[in-house]
Amino acid sequence: MKRQHIHTLAVHAGVKKGNNKDIIQPIHLSTTFERNEDGSTGEYIYTRAENPNRIAVEQKIASIEEAKTAITFASGMAAINALFNTLLEPNCHLIIPDDCYHGTRQLLNTFFKRWNVTSTMIDMTTASNIEEAIQSNTKLIWIETPSNPQLKITDLEAVISIAKKHNLLTVCDNTFATPILQKTINIGIDYVMYSSTKFFSGHSDILGGIILTNKENEISESIRTYQKMAGAVPAPFDCWLLNRSLATFPLRFKAQCDNAMVIASFLNTHAAIEKVFFPGLTSHENHTIAKKQMQHGFGTIVSILVKGNQENALRFTNKLQIFKHATSLGGVESLVEHRRSVEGTNPISPENLIRLSIGIEYIDDLLFDLKQALE
Question: Are residues 177 and 257 in contact, defined by beta-carbon separation less than 8 angstroms?
Answer without folding.
Answer: no
